[in-house]
Structure formats: structure tokens, C-alpha cells
Amino acid sequence: MTGLRQEFPQISVKTLCGLFGMSPQAYYKKKKTLLSRNQIKAAILSAVLYYRSQAPSIGGLKLHYELCSIYGGEVIGGRDAFLNLLRSEHLMLPPKKPRHTTDSNHLYKKYPNLIKGMTARYPNHIWVSDITYIWIQDGVCYLHLITDMYSHAVLGWVLAPGLQAAYTVQALEQAILKGGGGNLCGTIHHSDRGSQYACDDYIGLLTQHHIRISMTEDSKPTDNAVAERMNGILKTEWIYGRSLFKDEQDARQQIAQMIDFYNNGRPHMSIGMKKPMDVYCGEQPGKCLWKKAGSI
Prior knowledge:
Elements: H1 2-7, H2 13-19, H3 24-54, H4 60-71, H5 73-76, H6 79-88, E1 126-136, E2 139-148, E3 154-160, H7 165-178, E4 188-191, H8 195-198, H9 200-208, E5 212-215, H10 225-237, H11 248-264, H12 276-280
Parallel strand pairs: 1-4, 4-5
Antiparallel strand pairs: 1-2, 2-3
């Protein structure tokens, strides 16, 4: 109808509305609504472009979360509609290539799985080790972690620019120091079959402290579920809800605070809402409150 109005300006809006079976009031209301939607769309796209200028790799879900927290969900709209808008404007990021943090295709000795079906019975009974990647604005860095299975406390961690075994060894050295050092013959160290955990330096340090060595079976990453759970908590409760870290130093500072809160301030349902470091230091864990049996 707008096109007809422009082509025949002498025809009144009232006449045109009558031809299309609508009232002038409805026409102006719809025109105002369309204008408002266009303005909102333009504002959303402007905000998206601003965030992308600050963090080029920030994803659609993070953008939706961030914009809703600033402008409100009633303005930004639902997640799917928001992602469809990004898609229609060619603002969706290309799929990220999968990153493999460990390589089990090596000539080092691979050890059997010693913890299959086993439950940790005390602090320092079973340690689980893992590496996960952390995105920063200009790339990616890697978080090397060691977690106590009984208490879920993080005992050692290193955020590093690469996957070299030297960083994994540093995380292990932290865990050994926290575990009391010396003879840790009651401890089992469990990991995947990555070269970082099978190399001479890492195995030598475990052997030096009489720590038994356990590794996942082929193609069964779920054997390392406690470490995976820790990674998931760290990312979903903290990292995914914020913009990308500016750089490695910023990531290290923020992750230090996250892990400190995870260890000392966050109640865990798996240990009866106790804090991991309290349980690690001797407090009895409470009953697991997870509904699914075997959940961690």
C-alpha cells in the first residue's frame, strides 16, 4: 500500500485503506510497529558489530546473553530469533576446527586403567589430569589441570600458550607439593593416553613419588569423567558467560580467581554441598545429591 501511496499521492490514506479492507488507525499502528522493529534491529546489529570489534571471535550465544543482560530479553528477543538475525546478516562465525589437546599416537608406554569401577575413598587416593583449551581474543591457550577425585579440588593448574609436556609437569609438581610431597604411594594418577602424560619426564616424576599410573582405555574419554566435569563447570559457569579474555595474562588472572572460588567458595552437589578444599583438608563429604546414580 505504501507503493501505491507514493505512486498516486492524490489518493488519501483513508481511501487506500478502504480498498484493502483496513482502517487508517490500523495502518498507522502497523507502520509505527514496523518502524520500531527496524530501529531495534538496527540497534542490535550495531551492538553486535561493536562487540565483534572488541572480540572478533565472540559467538552468537555469548552475544545474546550479553545483550539481554544489558537491554533486556524483551528487547533482544529469544535466542533462536537472535541467531536467525545474525545468520540473515552473515554475522555467524564459521565453525571452529576441532582442537585436540592430546595425541595418543606415540611410542611411549601406555598404562592400563587402574580405576575402572573404583570409587575414591580419601583425599589423594585418585588424581585425574586433563588439558582443555581456552579461547582468547588473538587465539587460544591451554589449561593443564590436576583434580582430586575424592574432594573434586583442583590441586594443580597451569595456563600455557602450548601443549608441551613441560607445562603438564608444572601442574603435577603443584599437585605433589599440595599433596605433601615425598612418598605418595597411596595415590593413583589417572589421565588419557596423551604424550604429555606418557613422556619420560612426567612418568619419571610420578615414579619418583611412588604414584601409581593409570590411563584411559582406547577411545573411551568418559573414563576421565571427573576431569571433564571440572572443565565443564569452569566453562559453563564462568567462561561462556563473559566476553573473550583479552590475552593470556588476563585469562590467567581471571582463571586463578575462578579456580579459587571453585575450590573454596562453590558448594558441590556431588559431595553434599561441601566445598572441595574443605573436603580435601579433612572434612567429611556429604551425601551425593545428584539424582542420577554415578554422576559426579
